[in-house]
Design goal:
alpha+beta, about 130 residues, 5 strands
Length: about 130
Amino acid sequence: MRDDIQWPPDNAVLRRAAVHPPSDTISAAGASVAAPPDPPPAATSSPVSAPAATSPAASGALRRFEFADGTSSKFWEIEVTGRHYTVRYGRLGAGGQTKTKEAASEDAARRDAAKLIDEKTSKGYVER
């Protein structure tokens, strides 16, 4: 064993472990099953406009996108906080994976997020 290597390195970014699905998604046998979908919202008399999918992500605002095609059903989320942006993705009903990246500036982080959002919407993801 080498004594000149320190673990974790001083410059390492430590991340929390992935979030486990809520307990209401675990069956008695221990298998993960999706929770029932939320009921649709009641109709209102005022029109509601969806946010523009290509607008830059506002700082601290979590945006969620979903994709369902045949047997594939996935989600993708992005949140910008200062110079960092966090992406979480995976299959619907699962905790997913989380990745955080740091940009050169807050504006660069928002631009990166907008570019990623454009890529996802061009692939068929819909904002929820």
